[in-house]
Amino acid sequence: MDLNFTPEELAFRDEVRAFLRESLPLDISDAVRRGGELGADILSRFHALLNGRGWLGYVWPRDHGGTGWNAIQRHIFEEEMAAADCPRILPFGVNMLGPVLIKFGSEAQKSHYLPRILDGTDWWCQGYSEPGAGSDLASLRTRAVRDGDDWVLNGQKTWTTLGQYANRIFVLARTRADGKPQEGISFFLVDLDNPGIEMRPIRLLEGGHEVNEVFFTDARIPADALVGEENQGWTIAKYLLTHERTNIAGVGRSYRALAQLKDLARQTMRDGRPLIDDPLFAARLAEVEIDLEAMNILNLRMLDQAQKRGQPGAETSMLKIKGSVIRQEISDLARRVLGPAAAPFPGSAPDNLALLPEDAVNNAADYFNMRKMSIYGGSNEIQRNILTKAVLRL
Amino acid sequence: MDFELSEDRRMLRESLSRWLADRYPPDHRLKVAYDAPFHDPALWSELADLGVLLAMATEDAGGFGGSGFDISVIFEALGAALCPEPVLGALLVSRLLAAAGQDQSGLLDGSVRWALAVGEPDAPWSLDRIATQARGGRLTGRKALVYGGNDADRFLVVARDGDRLSVHEIAASDAEVVGFGTIDGGGAADVILSDTPARLVLDDAGKAIQSALDAGRLALCAEAVGVMDASFAALLDYLRQRKQFGRAIGEFQALQHRAADLAVEIEQARSITLLAASRLDGEGAARMVSMAKNLIGRVGRQVAEECTQMTGGIGVTWDYHPAHLTKRLVMIDHQLGDTDWHLQQVMAGIRA
Fold first, then answer.
1. What CATH number should be reported for the domain whose range is B7-108?
2. Along the 394 residues of chain A, how does pLDDT read in single tens digits?
3. Is A130 noted as a catalytic residue in this protein?
4. Of B35, B50, B111, B265, whose CB has the highest number of CB atoms within 10 Å?
5. Which of A22, A244, A287, A329 is labelled catalytic?
């Protein structure tokens, strides 16, 4: 039993840390610390920075242009990125489609698409959920019908994150109407410049534009847009979702947010004393810190298991539940620290009317934005269903 | 990073668990835990013969273990079997005798039963409020809820001499020992001292006492994890077997999701206990142990109350062994600092 990283892992951590310290542009880390939306420019420049170092394909094997890192190295890399106020790596190409193509793609698809993910030529978005198919994804109704050498797509996708910046979308569509719903789904690669595709913004509760809906109306896509076999899409979709769950706990992001929260609570005076000296506030802060320390070890235990088994087990659903709840609790405290200063709606008042520290101006908006964490990627209720079946065996 | 137990500790766990299953099944436990002396003296000797006490002490102190993980392995097994033997007192005393560099062979071979008298009615857990006075080799004061004190041969007593805390040895026969059974099984005593003759064991002992209590708190956390595992396993059995409305109640989502939440929280509790075990005797041990004991308190209550609720009427009956598990889970919070007390220790660290 040893909860410490090995000397090799520590050396790797130091290498990542040094690179980020020397190379991450200040305007990027400032924007991440500030919270709120990050534009395409910042996200693309960050990808380019990592790609220049050879680290963007951090979950890919070496012979496809990846790093070949193991689960512990990936974890360390993610934790260091969080600690250094890096943006998230966009998961849609790197974490989701990349592993899918490596496992299920044709040679032509691999050699064409994988390099374009890394060099930024393609920005992928995700066409999974539909208005009538959220948690029950297999009930999706977007249809792909074979017509000569083409497929013809009709239907609607939704919750397409950052689709406004994307040039491509991977789509789950129904290719067979009879039989079990899961057995009639296929996985397609679609160029968003095709006629018959329209992307419309969905405005979120806090006012931001992060997600979109995508409409397909007789959109023709070529036969080679199919990944794997026809009607094999559900297998591919599930494989992709296990990769979506990489770093699901978000331990590093929560540690960073907690540190920012403590700083802010020390600076914030309330009724003649720093808010951090308010016993009720400090108690909630202490509880969430304790929960986070426990989850950090839980996360490492699961990584260790994943490393030994080759893939993560259903227990990662625990990390999804706990990780989202902890992050949301921190965002709740970060909003409450502001008191009345949380209230102004951005754009309706002079910038930073309340003279908050720069890092805190988006705390209220972030609180509302963070509600998504227990909903996306399989809601926490779906995670409980998974645990019930796969772990508790009820 | 390695989350596997070493070969030695795995063997320790297996031999102890086997012995507990064989010698301390629920019906025997029920027979001894609630009647004086509230444990089984013959089994205490067997437990010592098994080497369990030796495994809690370092080689320097005459044992063959003594690390955080040795302690957690032992107490997790004891917890799963709901063993009422007074092992905690032996651990606390062993740490203090080791700090004083004194012989503890009688403790480790089980021939002398020891207990630590530290908490007081008005200061159950905070060392800076201890009022028992040490003067001229004699002790005066009152110690409350001394675990295992009802059947101890000797005590270590924490007392104050001005600003300094010191540790003293007394014979049980020299003090007024008011023994009783506890609501969750096992025995304890209040120890009343009035000019009681004592031998000074450790002077200026604040740090050593803190360190011993850290080990004891870790032990309680690990014990709680063992109890939680046993409680949860019993709950899952019940959810699979109990039928209402023509099907197993475990098929109802209202119960499934609550059971899933317990699974998550129990893994959180196990995780922080591992962390506390790895940090015992290191920098910041007291704060980490307080974090663990706070989370254990919160999760322990949740597991206990949910297991009781979901097992319905049977869960509140004396003859249902898992009901005693839930009782122990709740009462662990009353030992060596409760949820709120430990949260305050963690809060003090955040403000600093």
1. 1.10.540.10
2. 899 999 999 999 999 999 999 999 999 999 999 988 899 999 999 999 999 999 999 999 999 999 999 989 999 999 999 999 999 999 999 999 999 999 999 999 999 999 999 999 999 999 999 999 999 999 999 999 999 999 999 999 999 999 999 999 999 999 999 999 999 999 999 999 999 999 999 999 999 999 999 999 999 999 999 999 999 999 999 998 877 666 889 999 999 999 999 999 999 999 999 999 999 999 999 999 999 999 999 999 998 888 888 777 788 899 999 999 999 999 999 999 999 999 998 888 888 888 888 889 999 999 999 999 999 989 999 999 999 999 999 9
3. no
4. B265
5. A244
Residue B212's nearest CA partner among B124, B117, B296 is: B117
Mutual angle of helices A316-337 and B253-279, in 10-degree steps: 80
Are the CB atoms for B141 and B132 separated by under 8 Å? yes
- In this structure, is the dihedral angle defined by the CA atoms of residues A223, A229, A235 and A240, taken in order, positive or negative? negative
Are A149 and A223 spatial neighbours (Cβ–Cβ below 8 Å)?
yes
Domain A124-237 has CATH 2.40.128.110: no
Superfamily of domain B114-203: Butyryl-CoA Dehydrogenase, subunit A, domain 2 (2.40.110.10)
**Are the C-beta atoms of B69 and B59 separated by less than 8 Å?**
no
**Chain A partners of B271 at a C-beta cutoff of 8 Å?**
294-298, 301
Q: Does A287 touch chain B (CB under 8 A)?
A: yes
Question: How far is B332 from B323, CA to CA, in rounded Å?
Answer: 15
Contact A290, B342 (CB under 8 A): no
Structural domain boundaries of chain A? 7-89, 124-237, 248-343+352-392
Q: How many CA atoms lie within 13 A of B14 on its CB side?
A: 7
Pick from A276, A304, A322: CB nearest B3: A304
* Cβ-Cβ contacts under 8 Å, B347 against chain A: 279, 282-283, 285-286
Q: What residue of A is the nearest CA neighbor of B298? A: A287
Residues of chain B with a CB closer than 8 angstroms to some CB in chain A: 1-6, 9, 69, 236, 239-240, 248, 250-251, 253, 256-257, 259-261, 263-264, 267-269, 271-272, 274-275, 277-278, 288, 291, 294-295, 298, 343, 346-347, 350-351
Task: Report the residue of chain A nearest B241, measured CA to CA.
Answer: A394
Tell me: ipTM over 0.85. Answer: yes
Tell me whether A318 touches chain B (CB under 8 Å). Answer: yes
Contacts of A285 in chain B (CB under 8 A): 347, 350
Of the candidates A6, A9, A294, the beta carbon closest to that of B271 is on A294
